[in-house]
Design goal:
Layout (H helix, E strand, L loop, with lengths): L11 E2 L2 H12 L5 E5 L5 H9 L5 E5 L2 H10 L7 E3 L6 H9 L2 E6 L5 H10 L4 E9 H8 L9 H9 E9 L4 E2 L6 E8 L9 H13 L5 H4 L21 H15 L7
Parallel strand pairs: 2-3, 2-5, 3-4, 5-6
Antiparallel strand pairs: 1-8, 6-9, 7-9
Helix pairs in contact: 1-2, 5-7, 8-10
Length: 263
Amino acid sequence: MVQAKKHLGQHFLINEGVKKKIIEVVYHIPKNFTIEIGAGTGVLTKELIQCLNKNEFLAIDIDKESIEYLKRNFPENADQFLLEDFLNSERVDAILSSKLINIVGNFPYNISSQIMFKVLNYKNNIQYVVGMFQKEVAKRICAAPHNKDYGILSVLLQTYFETEYLFTVNEGSFNPPPKVKSAVVLLKNKMKKEYGFNEHVFFDVVKTAFNQRRKTLRNSLKKFGGEIEFLYKDKRPEQLSYYQFIEITNQIEKQMDGKIFKN
């Protein structure tokens, strides 16, 4: 059996009911090439192998012990298990760049936000995400404006994906049990081909505003030029929807006359 490693943030799912609920969600979304992140002991992997075509599924894990365990227990699927770091793998990047993708996983909690930022990098190809997160991160992903959980991840993900908090998962559903509750979230790509704004400026505006979230936008967005006029100057970032951030982006971009901040 695979030993959970604290430095990898491993908490292996052992609750059969939770597993079935996750697989039920996967079963009802359109079938694209699917990548499981953090295969661990194969609780989800076993079910995914059965409901997906062999040439349309890969399970990846950074833990060599996990991959060796999967290959021993599912020898006929050994070539579908990859020892890779999702965040830093040219092989994974090549797959994400080449086809429509669904992402599934009981994500390591210490890198779950980083996984979501990588999803944003490949938003043109990633169609669905069914993921287990620490509950606090799940709430941030799905939070609406005027909510203390609403932040950078909320705005950026909700710009490109419909986000849905599916259900909460208690600590005892894992081995070893984490010290926090978990939650499963579904992301569905909005599939807009044209968004009508400069994405580089948009990301910069959102991150700059929330990095000084207690300030009004009049003060937090000074880096774009104090003379620039834009809507909602007297608002704080958590008061604005993603669409309002797009409005601000378009105003700033127009007045910057194409001069894009690179830092």
